[in-house]
Write a structure and sequence with these properties.
The protein is α/β, with parallel strands linked by helices. The chain contains 13 helices and 14 strands.
């Protein structure tokens, strides 16, 4: 049963507009969880994809298999007709060719970025919206510094289906680690932004082949490359960076298959700890998933994940901001000329050793995280937050200042 009932405050109606709701990307997953949270709370959200009303659909044909309850919520959202008064949430990448506004609605941008600045032109596009909902303090500060009016910026953090991401709720997935080894997991879309090079360097410094530990890299490329390329890219880096010492590494397992939504909690259930030295996150969904599952979790001490990672029940690795390299493998050109985070490899190796040396102590330190996350970012609190922000957006759209703009 939902912690909050939105039916007493069902004004206004909420329409979530996305590029492609069944895509395996983090943005699509975020939209699905928001729709599910609102649906559970009685908020009756509606949804549409850009292509369903004569506009561009950016799907590349890849579709994720959804858990049944989420699929039902998504289908109900597609079938609903939005009613007035209406808040239309535009949850897709801002582009000049997508300057679509829903007639008669308060038009809100759900937007995010992971580096220290915005891509060129975004600030002007976002300023045209009645409100801009961002996931974290990091994104709010970056957007404001880029020129998005602070009066339009509000923070809306993310949520999960915490019943699925729950210790003991999922049957552990077999991760091909050697028997008796302590398993570190990293789950990421393959790109330079996820800091996989720094992770492999730290792994080589922290452990050798005699240590009973294993690193599982669950990675694939949603946008650009096939599974074979991703696997060979990682292998090539290990061999080129470490040379003859590659054989002295503690085991590394690469899992590059696409998983259903039901298998993702099983992935975490098969691991003993989670690590991701990301170069920047607007939110950091995989950190939250791992922490909700009770895993000792190692993350970067920078960007959006600091809204829910404080270093008390997790591990934060220091580092520095560096320019995005001209030859960095990133999803697109939006990152060029920006700066992002680079984790200190020695500090990362130290965190890995600390966790592996005393797993019981690491689990005890991580244990309080789940209840803390639920209290602020559970589905009920997030559904209530969306309803409150929707009321604010409607007020802003109907204000005299907005009418004269």
């Amino acid at each position: 049963m939902a912690a909050y009932d939105l039916r007493p405050v069902e004004r206004p109606s909420i329409l979530w507009i996305v590029s492609y709701l069944r895509h395996p990307s983090g943005n699509a997953e975020e939209a699905r969880t928001f729709l599910r949270a609102l649906d559970l709370a009685g908020g009756e959200p509606a949804a549409m994809e850009l292509g369903t009303r004569g506009r561009e659909t950016v799907s590349d044909g890849r579709t994720v298999a959804l858990e049944h309850e989420t699929l039902e919520a998504v289908v109900r959202a597609f079938e609903r007709e939005p009613r007035e008064p209406l808040v239309a949430v535009h949850a897709y990448t801002p582009r000049a060719e997508r300057r679509f506004t829903h007639p008669g609605a308060a038009n809100v941008a759900r937007a995010m970025f992971e580096t220290d600045r915005l891509p060129e032109g975004w600030a002007l596009l976002l300023a045209e919206r009645d409100a801009v909902w961002v996931p974290s303090r990091h994104t709010r500060d970056v957007f404001a510094a880029a020129g998005v009016p602070e009066s339009k910026l509000s923070i809306l953090g993310e949520t999960l289906d915490f019943e699925r991401f729950k210790p003991g709720a999922a049957e552990p997935l077999e991760l091909d680690a050697p028997d008796g080894h302590f398993v570190f997991l990293s789950n990421f879309d393959f790109s330079e932004r996820k800091g996989w090079r720094q992770l492999l360097q730290a792994w080589a410094r922290a452990f050798d082949a005699n240590d009973p530990v294993c690193l599982v890299l669950k990675t694939l490329s949603v946008a650009r490359w096939d599974e074979d390329y991703v696997r060979e890219r990682i292998r090539h880096y290990v061999e080129g960076k470490l040379g003859n010492d590659a054989d002295r590494l503690a085991p590394i397992v690469i899992r590059s298959e696409r998983m259903s939504a039901a298998d993702v909690p099983r992935l975490y259930a098969g691991a003993d700890a989670y690590v991701s030295p990301s170069r920047g996150e607007a939110w950091g969904r995989t950190y939250m998933e791992a922490m909700a599952m009770g895993l000792p979790t190692v993350g970067s001490d920078w960007s959006g994940n600091l809204d829910f990672m404080d270093g008390e029940d997790c591990w934060l690795v220091p580092g520095e901001l560096v320019p995005v390299a001209g030859d960095a493998e990133v999803v697109d050109e939006l990152y060029r000329g920006h700066r992002w985070f680079e984790a200190d490899v020695d500090s990362l190796a130290e965190a890995l050793r600390e966790i592996a040396s005393d797993p019981a102590a690491a689990r005890a330190r991580a244990a309080p995280a789940r209840e803390r996350l639920l209290a602020t970012w559970g589905e009920g609190p997030i559904a209530k937050r969306i309803a409150e922000l929707a009321e604010d957006a409607l007020d802003a759209a109907q204000s005299p200042e907005s009418a004269s703009a």
